[in-house]
């Protein structure tokens, strides 16, 4: 099957991007170098094409109630203009996908799914919302998503926002969004992101994406804005301790396993005030009150070789046969100057400060358990 092309595909090709298949799409891995793009986002700003993400609209008088049943979060309590990180779980509590949901009106929500899970999320939401006065509409093909992330993001984005919208866009709080005109284009402008930096994500009609990219690129040039690909996005989110579906999250993992139990709202109630039996509630309630068999931790490398996804975590360099976990994500950290990784390990070795080892291609590399995230952006 042919890969889906982003509305910005011609832009990426003209910029000389290395294009790779990703979740059924052809997407830019990098434009120049992974390091240069990563550093630019931390120091100035990067512009990302996220048009592969899925956008699913849920509308109707009972849209909020439908999402309360379908997802683990309490979406009906979300104020208009706010966003929430949440998850859709299987009946057994396993994570089907992690999502960001925006409430765009009293009776309207925008559900943003990972590209790899778009089809399954859409297939799950339809039946789960069927018993409510709510309609589920897939808007992914008609929608482009562009992110500007980094300490100069606000200056760049507001410089191309219509005058009447500048103050509102500049004053957006984290995990909020509003409609605004950007470079003459109607957009949903959200202060969200996946890099650990300040920034915006802009949802626009697919056909408007090239014009918006060009306007943002021109506006960002004096500030050091560079195009950034999937590779930099991955190393940035790892430093920020953000999970990636397929690595830290999957159907064998509950939100509690991943240290994200806070997104599960077991106290949700239905219209009559009774506890809401949302999808996965029973197993999730049981998991909350049980001892974990594994814990997601951060690991800092004490040597120079980076651990990678799937590598075994060992109790020590001397105990090569004592496997206590596995790496979910790992890479050298450009910001911190040493390797970092996330891993699921057994509870008895999960305390911060515990020294372990990782089997890196047959050689035990020393690591130490550290608190997540690895990186927090400095106050500016």
Task: Pick out its properties.
380 residues, Gyrase A, domain 2, 20% helix, GcvT_C, transferase, Elongation Factor Tu (Ef-tu), domain 3, aminotransferase, GCVT_N, alpha+beta
Describe the protein in words.
- Helices cover 20% and strands 32% of the residues.
- By secondary structure, it is α+β, with helices and mostly antiparallel strands.
- Among the domains are: 144 residues, Probable tRNA modification gtpase trme, domain 1 (Gyrase A, domain 2), CATH 3.30.1360; 76 residues, Elongation Factor Tu (Ef-tu), domain 3.
- The longest helix has 12 residues.
- Helix 2 crosses helix 8 and helix 3 crosses helix 4.
- The protein is built from nine helices and 20 strands.
- Strands 11-12-13-10-4-14 form a six-stranded mixed β-sheet, with helices on both faces.
Percentage of residues assigned to helices = 10-25%
Order of helices and strands: EHEEHEEHEEEHEEHHEEEHEHHEEEEEE
Strand arrangement, largest sheet? 11-12-13-10-4-14
Determine the CATH superfamily of one domain.
Probable tRNA modification gtpase trme, domain 1
CATH fold node name of one domain:
Gyrase A, domain 2
CATH architecture of one domain: 2-Layer Sandwich
Q: Name the average pLDDT.
A: 97
Number of strands: 20
Query: Biggest sheet: strands, sense, closure?
Result: 6 strands, mixed
Radius of gyration: 21 Å
CATH classification class of one domain: Alpha Beta
- The separation of the N and C termini measures 47 Å
Shape: globular
């Amino acid at each position: 099957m042919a890969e889906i092309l982003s509305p910005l595909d011609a832009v990426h090709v003209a910029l000389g991007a290395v294009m790779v298949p990703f979740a059924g799409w052809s997407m830019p891995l990098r434009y120049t170098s992974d390091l240069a793009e990563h550093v630019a986002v931390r120091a100035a700003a990067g512009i990302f094409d996220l048009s592969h993400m899925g956008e699913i609209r849920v509308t109707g008088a009972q849209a909020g109630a439908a999402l309360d049943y379908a997802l683990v979060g309490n979406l009906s309590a979300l104020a208009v203009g706010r966003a929430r990180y949440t998850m859709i779980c299987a009946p057994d509590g396993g994570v089907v996908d992690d999502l960001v949901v925006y409430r765009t009106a009293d009776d309207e929500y925008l559900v943003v799914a990972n590209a790899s899970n778009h089809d399954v999320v859409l297939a799950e939401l339809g039946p789960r919302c069927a018993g409510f006065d709510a309609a589920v509409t897939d808007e992914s093909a008609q929608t482009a998503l562009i992110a500007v992330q980094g300490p100069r993001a606000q200056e760049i984005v507001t410089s191309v926002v219509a005058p009447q919208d500048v103050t509102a866009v500049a004053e957006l709080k984290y995990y909020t969004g509003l409609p605004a005109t950007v470079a003459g284009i109607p957009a949903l402008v959200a202060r969200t992101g996946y890099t650990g930096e300040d920034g915006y994500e802009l949802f626009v009609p697919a056909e408007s994406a090239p014009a918006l990219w060009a306007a943002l690129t021109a506006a960002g040039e004096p500030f050091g804005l560079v195009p950034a690909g999937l590779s930099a996005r991955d190393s940035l989110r790892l430093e920020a301790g953000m999970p990636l579906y397929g690595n830290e999250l999957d159907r064998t993992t509950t939100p509690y396993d991943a240290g994200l139990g806070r997104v599960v709202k077991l106290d949700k109630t239905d219209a009559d005030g009774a506890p809401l039996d949302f999808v996965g509630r029973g197993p999730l309630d049981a998991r909350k009150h049980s001892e974990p068999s594994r814990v997601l931790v951060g690991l800092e490398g004490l040597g120079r070789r980076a651990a990678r996804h799937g590598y075994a975590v060992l109790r020590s360099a001397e105990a090569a046969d004592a496997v206590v976990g596995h790496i979910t994500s790992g890479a050298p950290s450009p910001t911190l100057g040493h390797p970092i990784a996330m891993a699921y390990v057994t509870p008895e070795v999960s305390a911060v400060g515990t020294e372990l080892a990782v089997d890196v291609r047959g050689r035990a590399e020393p690591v130490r358990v550290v608190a997540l995230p690895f990186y927090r952006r400095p106050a500016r």
